[in-house]
């Protein structure tokens, strides 16, 4: 497989949420994801072309962990998507318009270095950390 496939297969990720109404508000309204199938305890989302499923589950009791990256405390675990720069900027504006607090404000990480990328972090309403990235040069995705 090449470093950046020309055809990327959608991933599937299931995450815990504590309230499906709030999940609908966050993923549907804030992020603008289309809702797919659903049942009493879960909802499928079109998460930027990938399948994200929010399942009702109890919150873990442990404290969130953070690792230092480029001078910022990055929440672990986290997930997200690499967007085009235009889509990344639009999402940052959308998140701001909905008064979602950023864990790490939108900025360019590793500026002038291999892997330079725009990034932002924020939590959903159930405490799941999300990161969205964009590259001016997608070939930098796996740069060392």
From TrEMBL:
<dbReference type="InterPro" id="IPR004360">
    <property type="entry name" value="Glyas_Fos-R_dOase_dom"/>
</dbReference>
<protein>
    <submittedName>
        <fullName>Glyoxalase</fullName>
    </submittedName>
</protein>
<dbReference type="InterPro" id="IPR037523">
    <property type="entry name" value="VOC_core"/>
</dbReference>
<feature type="domain" description="VOC">
    <location>
        <begin position="9"/>
        <end position="135"/>
    </location>
</feature>
<dbReference type="InterPro" id="IPR029068">
    <property type="entry name" value="Glyas_Bleomycin-R_OHBP_Dase"/>
</dbReference>
<dbReference type="Pfam" id="PF00903">
    <property type="entry name" value="Glyoxalase"/>
</dbReference>
């Amino acid at each position: 497989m090449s470093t950046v496939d020309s055809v990327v297969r959608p991933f599937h990720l299931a995450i815990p949420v504590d309230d499906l109404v709030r999940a609908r508000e966050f993923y549907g309204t804030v992020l603008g994801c289309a809702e797919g199938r659903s049942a009493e305890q879960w909802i499928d989302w079109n998460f930027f072309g990938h399948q994200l499923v929010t399942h009702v589950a109890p919150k873990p009791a442990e404290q969130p962990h953070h690792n230092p990256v480029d001078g910022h405390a990055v929440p672990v675990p986290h997930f997200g998507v690499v967007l085009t720069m235009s889509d990344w900027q639009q999402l940052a504006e959308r998140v701001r318009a909905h008064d979602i607090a950023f864990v790490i404000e939108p900025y360019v990480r590793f500026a002038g270095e291999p892997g330079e990328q725009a990034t932002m972090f924020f939590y959903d309403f159930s405490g799941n950390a999300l990161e969205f990235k964009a590259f001016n040069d997608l070939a930098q995705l796996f740069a060392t």
